[in-house]
Batch of 3 targets.
Target 1
Amino acid sequence: MRHRYIVKKRQDSLWDLIKGSIDAGSGWLCVLLVGIAAGCVAGMVDIGASWMSDLKHGICPPAFWFNREQCCYPAKQSVFEEGNCSTWKTWPEIFGLDRNGTGPYIVAYIWYVLWALLFASLSASLVRMFAPYACGSGIPEIKTILSGFIIRGYLGKWTLLIKSVGLMLSVSAGLTLGKEGPMVHIASCIGNIFSHVFPKYGRNEAKKREILSAAAAAGVSVAFGAPIGGVLFSLEEVSYYFPLKTLWRSFFCALIAAFVLRSLTPFGNEHSVLFFVEYNKPWIFFELIPFVFLGIMGGVIGTFFIKANLWWCRYRKFSKLGQYPVMEVLFVTLVTGIICYPNPFTRMNMNELIFLLVSKCSPGDVTNPLCEYKRMNITMGNSIIEVTEPGPGVYSSIWLLMLTFILKLALTIFTFGMKVPAGLFIPSLLLGAIMGRIVGIGVEQFAYSYPNIWFFTGECADSNLITPGLYAVVGAAAVLGGVTRMTVSLVVIMFELTGGVRYIVPLMAAAMASKWVGDALGRQGIYDAHIALNGYPFLDSKEEFAHTTLAADVMQPKRNETLNVITQDSMTVDDVENLLKETEHNGYPVVVSRENQYLVGFVLRRDLNLAIGNAKRLIEGISSSSIVLFTSTQPTQNLGPQPLKLKKILDMAPITVTDQTPMETVVDMFRKLGLRQTLVTHNGRLLGVITKKDVLRHVKQMDNEDPNTVLFN
């Protein structure tokens, strides 16, 4: 109606034409603002988190607001070289001790754990006091919101503020969590706040969801520097309904967000991606076997993680533990700090570790223990080739990496779901990268030991072709795919993350294998599993409804109960108000009369309350014995007080089905149209109502699950 009114007014005057044009472009303007804001917030979170992470190790006395990389910027050095940067002071040095030795090590250890505890307690307390919705990753809830359910306050300004600050704190506390999932939630909060600036979006839930889909794309775009991956993630994982217009808006929003983030350069290097890889050697066809093996392992690890994490979350939910969220966070942080400090791989930032695992070894690299190879030349026929054999550093690194893998897997199971902002992408990528790097070193050794096997023939002649870093990239994709069950968006995010476009086929093979294995072992990805655990009313649009029930079996009320209806011209204001008091329904069907239940329309509870309240205040002669009319004709004998005409608030075209409609069709209507309820008729007479919650209950009952697990608030 609003749109028709604007189009009709356009011809009247120039001013109306301008207003109409502004209205038409307000969607693009809204996503532009969302993209800019998301980029700025992400930049702030990245910069704050990197500074606070380095604060656990030391401080930069000339300018305390610099992190270690900026402090040592003139003298370029890698993560492992502590020694030669004189401007950066570790905590033992601040207290007048040396850098190395037993005493300084203990001091550094204690400071590391103390800072971690401080950051984690701040994060958990902020979440607990100001915004309880700011915990977790937020993607399950956003999927639920985009499917047409409203969680009040979930995307509010307090949630946005606390989530951004809490995210910086919990990432820098060294907990095993990423900041990628929460970025989607933060961007969606920004989208929700900006949609209220434009009444076209703020007042219309369906339109608002278009903005939220675009915001989710911007969230992934700024988390990874992967704009196209963000759009595909929104399409594949988050959004429920994704028309072309939303696709273009999401693309634009992700582009703007990535552009703003690029101008803030929080990654500190000239690439706008997290883990840029320099190698671009072709891969051998035989390598598809280990790639698919990595995919299978990724599916297994992902399913194990989902099952273990769900078991722990269920235990937390129904035991005493759930009453002490801050204590739990502190305990996990303490354990994480104590376990992770001694091992150099677990001590460093997770992003830095993934970067080490996916990067290739350059010949002169002495700082990375994964690169301690002995180099020698051997003659083969008439060509000299250089062969590398792993030194002791590589073997000790493999043992440390295996330990890191076990620790990080266990810690992630206990961390994800705690009451701090926590994402899942980076820990999954890390687990996969460790697995991939170890497999890669194994394959490289195999090629080194048997260079003349038929499937290597001629391939290994120029120089060693097998790059362990590539296996780390593929393994990372496999585990992330096993945990979240993404396919297309996962491959695009991975090659945008690393810049390795040559490796799309290995990534696709691993992602597909991981999804198949994961789906065979357990149907749900981590987000769907958490939706089911929290009992959100979410109708999954990916699953089929495979039962033969009819609408008559599901509708309320059942055969012998009465249906609450309003008649079109025989109820008084008093009757309607009593009906509103006694029942809790969202709306009421309007019928011709009690005896003759032909359907006239549907009226919402909210509209009824407002209309009656306003009429009592503003219209003379309306009393509690006035007749409520939903027709345009006056009743003939009008002797009593003035009637109250409410035809304006009546929905004359409610969605209806007949009692013989198969439930499969009804479920499809609920999914595709995002309905809240539908009315059931027989020969035009009203029989009952089916709400979204009735459909969910029915689906649960048919799958032999407990229908009371869904939150019907």
Target 2
Amino acid sequence: MAELDADLDRIIPSSVLPPFWAKLVVGFVSLVCFARSYDGDFVFDDSEAIINNKDLRAETPLGDLWHHDFWGSRLSSNTSHKSYRPLTVLTFRINYYLSGGFHPMSFHVINILLHGGISVLMVDVFSVLLGGLQYTSRGRRLNLAPRSSLLAALLFATHPVHTECVAGVVGRADLLGALFFLLSFLGYCKAFRESNKEGTHSTFWVLLSILLGAVAMLCKEQGITVLGLNAVFDILVIGKLNVLEMVQKVLHKDKSLENIGMLRNGGLLFRMTLLASGGAGVLYMRWKIMGTGPPAFTEVDNPASFADSMLVRAINYNYYYSLNAWLLLCPWWLCFDWSMGCVPLIKSAGDWRVTAPAALWLCLIGLICQALCSEDNHKRRILTLGLGFLIIPFLPASNLFFRVGFVVAERVLYLPSAGFCMLLTFGFGALSKHTKKKKLIAGVVLGILFINILRCMIRSGEWRNEEELFRSALSVCPLNAKVHYNVGKNLADKGHQTAAVRYYRQAVRLNPKYVHAMNNLGNILKERNELQEAEELLSLAVQIQPDFAAAWMNLGIVQNSLKRFEAAEQSYRTAIKHRRKYPDCYYNLGRLYADLNRHVDALNAWRNATVLKPEHSLAWNNMIILLDNTGNLAQAEAVGREALELIPNDHSLMFSLANVLGKSQKYKESEALFLKAIKAHPNAASYHGNLAVLYHRWGHLSLAKKHYEISLQLDPTASGTKENYGLLRRKLEQMQKKDV
């Protein structure tokens, strides 16, 4: 049994040490932590990655997944985020197909089960990292650290920083990446299963490990870092390389350098060559697929990376690292988004926050010194592997090799947290070894696990819907403009416009260049008829971002309402210039032309809208009504029939076409459409009123009377219906007098 396990003998009971029970406990606890999120909604980024992602739908060819990014955009596009995760998107597509649509429960359940499976795998991974790699004569791997591997796996399974990955459906990318990351590592360990003499290996398992690393990368970019962890593990555990001793021999020009000879004889250089060439090949293919180079992020996404001073960039990057370390150490202040002013830049050495990276590096240097200089080989190995698992998977998010699109992201800590849990377990073992108060340490461990489970359950509840998620961030990141924007958007979607305006204004105050907040605020002000301020906001938005097509269109709508028709037309044209396939803008342009009695231009604009979006009901309706009003009944009928073929269940189209058919004296067909529309929308007063007019013309006076009365019950203020009903009653009275 490993030395660390002996130190934990009073903390972990022997009854849970058998592999089956240990994994059962870990799996059960991991499911309990995040079970509350199983019936949650699609929240935050889920909308773009799942609901609005056409790659999930059956009509999109499967082959397109290999040419699109995570969000469904073409990788060759300059606007693409270059996040290439086709295997994750494929699982979303399978989820969508099996659940029969966008039912979030099935998506959430898969995420929870994935975390449970990963936590169970962690028992095996930690047993190798903490206890070493040793096989029986039959090729069965021995678990030399059952207590420490179980404790580390429990700490991993219950860590609250994982909530974003598990409770947010988009986090499946991190879960799948972690799953294949661990499988790649365990596969690499199997390369030494059948070794009869020290140093031999199975090339098949090494190559399979590289393949699994590539699969991990196709789920999430950081998955490829498993090859680095495999290399570190091989050097330290298989090669038994003492880094400090080797450096000392090089510095003293020791010609013996036995370790180097051992490396050559043991095949380590060959395995390192395979890992390096495999990793380089996969990264090259990844770069080629990206097409146009790295993605273009903005200053609000990662302000430190845009700082002019290299010193300012370095200080802030290190401060970000310390924030990530704090989230691992004390995961109480969690936020769905850490950008847009949430973490202000450190611009001077006098800022007290510089003490955080100093403290971080002090701890890291201490751990590195212990990992290199300790005379205890077991301690050196655990500390080095723990630091490797902590740092290597984090490197793609470190800003060291390329700019990333975030300040802090809890999701990228999913894999590095395993290294943290490993170091924490080692720390508990060291404490237990040097103190007699074993029960106190056991109580601390149980307390941490209980608090973590409780925090996971609370945080999972906050991720169940957007309102709770966004509001939970207000206390953590009150300076984050995006938090206020999202709270405002959620309120606006629920119809609470006054409250939404307050949050949108705060978002603009915190970030005066936040064009999306300006656009949404301008929209609400437009609906409240506060047109002057709406125009000022939208004009500022397009001045800040001249290619913001949605803001140009909304500005056109406001200018149209202000009777500034030429300016409105120019705004619509500019929006279409920046977004050629913009059906809503063509629709609004058509409305402008209709107001100006430019009927041909209006019809052309609405036709463009329906070509780009065949289900654009409003554009079809306006075409039918305009043709009807201008006396082009035959053309109106043709357009109506074409529209209903495309949108057969749209009651407003049925109503418009029924009106046209009634005027064309096609009473029977008109009646059928009116009745079908009324069945779909029985409380529409105009539907009953116009059907009554049809019966009135047709001579079915009793039916006309019935529907006039229903229409007036639904809308007693309808003057046209009142007038027609009065005419019908007089006619019926006259008929009764004649009969008498």
Target 3
Amino acid sequence: MELNEKNPTPDSKYGEARKFDPTFKGPIHNRGCTDVFCCILFILAILGYFAVGILAWSQGDPRKVIYPTDSRGQFCGQAGTPLEKKPLLFYFNILKCASPLTLLEFQCPTTQLCVESCPTKHMTLVNAYLNKGEQEYYKQFCKEGVDFSKMSAPEILKHGLCPSMLMSSKPFTRRCLPALSTMKGGVVVVGNETSFDNGKGGKVNATDFLDASKKSNVVVEARQVAMRIFEDYTVSWYWILIGLVIAMVVSLIFIVLLRYLAGIMIWVMIVMVILVIGYGIFHCAMEYRSLKGEPGSDVTIRDLGLQTDFSVYLQIRQTWLAFMIILSIVEVVVILLLVFLRKRVLIAIALIKEASRAVGHVMSSLFYPLLTFALLALVIAYWAITAVFLSTSNEQVYKVFNTTECEYSRDTCNPEMFNTTNISAQCPGAECLFAFYGGETYYHKYLIVFQFYNVFLFFWCANFVTALGQVTLAGAFASYYWAFKKPDDIPASPICSSLGRALRYHTGSLAFGSLILSLVQVIRVLLEYLDQKLKAAQNRFAKFLLSCLKCCFWCLEKFIKFLNRNAYIMVAIYGKSFCTSARDAFFLLMRNIIRVAVLDKVTDFLLFLGKLLIVGIVGICSFFFFSGRIKAVEQTAPSLNYYWVPILTVVVGSYLIAHGFFSVYAMCVDTLFLCFLEDLERNDGTAERPYFMSQNLLTILKKSNEDQAKTVD
């Protein structure tokens, strides 16, 4: 169906069409406060959020995240403490870290001390005891107060005052781990030795230390990758900033060109997107072809498994084949959509041209996303800091650790009184070690409630900031549309006026809409948490039900976002409550469902192609630069562990920057679209009821105002 049909007959199912109102000249200025109860509730919730933050900051201790802790829960290397000059954590018997208990308790069942440096040579306690020259060196890895002259070696071992042996170690993530290496043939060694005297008359193989080293820190591999990524950021951060600045400049140029050359730019954008994706397909095909016959290139991704060095995946053909297939599918989908929607693209271009004029007359709207970004950054920072303090506000909890079966295993204990109890007698080798942080006070009992409240308020505040931006932009662009003589009738400072109206009258409506969306998002987070917990379960019905719920709530979130967006536009124009505005917007869209399907979605698709083009241009340039493919700047490019780290950062950052600029366009298009539908229902083009839309839209819709028609005649 074409878009030149007459106004549809009002359907009582979706309410009555808007009637002509000679006094309506755009966003209503004489309005009252809406959804006052939600406004009060939101203010109380914010005050409660501040109270939770203050409570968390008074109880929390972020040092627990930064510094490793010894067996007494003391921080290694913390400034202003007796352990300030002992930044490294040393394990008495790292072989015990290979126990499954490590994975359950995230703590090795062995004594841990803070030391100045890691041991650099293999030595047993017996050897050190017999060699007085080595005793001082050995004592730095023992508990305080050890006197070799007053105690025998067996007594020292019995009381757990010293480790039975030392081995060559290296600091990693502030922990002393065996200096493992691999010789030719895959033989694991520590300091060129394959086996060691354990100080108790036995031998220990170097391979035993390998498993213990891996399990001594459950996330050791992840931290290793994180360290490499951090190193890449330290040497490439300024190039990343340059890439993001380039993305911002390209986005600004694109927006400015849209203002004057919207039609040409849209077609250029369409062609460029097709060419960029096409080049991606060509590049993947060439890489796939070049790897033919290379040793190891035919290994599958499944056989390769998870590797910390992600560049390995680029050395196998299957990776490039997968990239090529994905890009080919995207290319075909884009081309098919353009073919079937070719007639609708012209109408969408006209709407984008109108949006370009609106943005041109309200240029301050381009900089409003900076305010939204700053507010969102503030919300995220407050949430993150509060989360860290909440997670570190527990007290030290000590438990009994023992490698053998014992009735007291993992029971809480007091390290000061442990030696006076009968636990050590009933459980040989048992130790009272720091296990984790917890507590028995009311604060600690309800800590999970505070953490949930922190997450919920984060969603609510973030959605409120987004809603505030949408209402502000909608009010400004509605002022443009309903100005009959543009730009003379456009009010001064439309962005500031709209922002003032939103905060003064509609804080409650914004809080109401964002509250509904936040509830759905929190439910989705809980469903994702349950999904992670049930991954190991074999109940297929439970997994199926959970998948259905996740799908339903995902769809519900998308629908609520769509409804909220249009409701906020109606709030900005008419100043009514959220529910009334949501109903009016929904009925207006349903009365014009054909136009919604044709215009709104095609326009969104074209704007998405614009973002895709900017990301593609910046992404390809960053790929050639950071991978050293450009010979002219090969020496300038930084040396990286993973060259995809800055590339991915630039790509994601470019998309966010492009999205920030194009979100203004998207909000402008949505606002003008609703105003356009209202215009068609309110007016008929006569001298008494002229259309407010531009001449281009009138021509495309085959409509005209009588005054303009007479002028043409």
